[in-house]
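Page 42, continued from yesterday. The earlier attempt failed because a stray header line got pasted into the input along with the sequence. Redoing it now with the clean sequence only.
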Amino acid sequence: MSSTFTQAGGTFNAGDTLIDNNGTGATTISGGTFNLQSATLESTRAITVSGATTSTFFDGGTGNITLVDITYGDLFINGGDFTFPNGNVTIKDDLTISVNAIVNENNTTLTYSSSNAVATIDIPSTFTFTNLIVSSTANTYGIVISPGDTFIVSSTLTLVNGIIGGTGVLEFTGPESGLTLESTWDGGSGTLKISGDDIRDFTFDATTKFPGIYLNAPNTTIDFLGTASTTIGGGLTIDAGEFNVSSTDIILNSGTYGSITQTGGIFNGQNTGLISVARSFFLSGGTFNAGTNSGSLNIDGNYTNTITGGTFNLQTATANVDYPLTVSNGIFDGGTGNLTFVIGWADLTISGGTFTFPSGTTTIKNNLTIGAGATIYYNNATLVHNRTYGVSGYGYWNISGTSTIANLVINNLGPNYLVTYIQTGAIVVSSTLTLTDGYLTGASGTSLEFSGDNINIASTWDGLNIPTFRLTGNNNQIIDITGIESSINSDVIINKASGTVTLNSGLTLDAASQDLTITDGVLDLNGNNLLIVGVFSNNDTLRLQGSETLSFTNDTDSGTIEFIGNADSLSDTYIIPN
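This time it went through. Structure tokens are written below.
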């Protein structure tokens, strides 16, 4: 035929020959019965089947259908009662199955083979084919599943070349041997869902390019062979099953679709060096293990990341998070890793669940919130507040009750007025306190307590303005604020069962609202000057050694003043103004 094939009634039995419509007109069946039998129906233009399900019948028999043209090679099943052939159906362009049609699959092998277009699959919600092959000739061509549609393949799915796109789902329910992704496959941003209850262990080459992966198969394991980077063009969703990253890097590179969403199952980072997530991270169930190879988990998208259930094990990895992380339930175990918030407005909010800080370093750029509903373990962590990135103003910390942190670093760099502001709660630093740059201040009732043995205050430090600064514990503590003697603007309370607080510089408390109280323990001036405008109350010992100037405006309780001298055989001078 060189023009058009049209059937509106009657019966057409094709037999076993080639029916070749190579003209410019479409093949249209709108009524009657078309029996393909064992023949091959080949058409240069689209094949369209329409009409009522009681008056139009297409029976593919054991034949084949081949659409030839790369532009018009469509199959439109808009109506009628249509049974696919038991052989091969090759489509160059779109496949449409209308809700107005009755369509039966017949152990068919469907092949998409396009050289200049992305073919659209539009089906009534779900449809199942036995076998599907996608073999396009360019890395931008392939298939697009329409929104809301799930295209199911029950036996063999072979992805040779091209992509999967669209927001619909290509679902594979077949056996382990039935899924093949060739090295020439290009991935795409669509979704390949692997489901079913069969026991399957898929092992893919690390260089494989995937579309989005949706694993919902409780008895299925996905693993990789090799050490290259594995690219996932869409998102990674795990509802059930096990996703193992033995040694490869995992790259989710789509800023639109490249999220990890886990509601169940297991993600094992194992020996990976890098897990790169272009969008965001959501965990509501299952177990996510970031890796035991000291690799990196990079979450780069500008969306809030959430843990609302399940278990997150950072293990030895470093998590680099661009945008806020909210933990409201489940378990976050930082292991021996590190947690770094990268962008200036990246908050850490812990409102519930069990949160164990990594024993490495946690670097926060903006706000920290720890709610009363959360169980917190600080795990000998180092907590750094590092406000940079051109932001100004306060980074707010809201802490329910008292948080005991091994090591605290405030290093708010930049030209702006960068402040760590404690809105609620108390912070206890049990090992090392490092104040490098910026300010630490707080609302009424908040406090900073230091019970450790190393306090490092740099000459670039701008001010400790929190209402109360307590020096406690049993260790000897040394304060050196040379050049910034008036940078402590808090009430200072010394309450030590043992150990001494020693000044290696002068200390100036020059506000009338600033008090110095020695409740228990020794303050050793070590030859340095002490000026107090507010109230000085000494219930234990103020030690003088060398020559000092003591300036007290309101000495309510002098307590014990111990004079040692400096052992140089010369007289020492103490100036104590009224």
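Notes: The mean pLDDT is 92.
Reminder to self: strip header lines before submitting.
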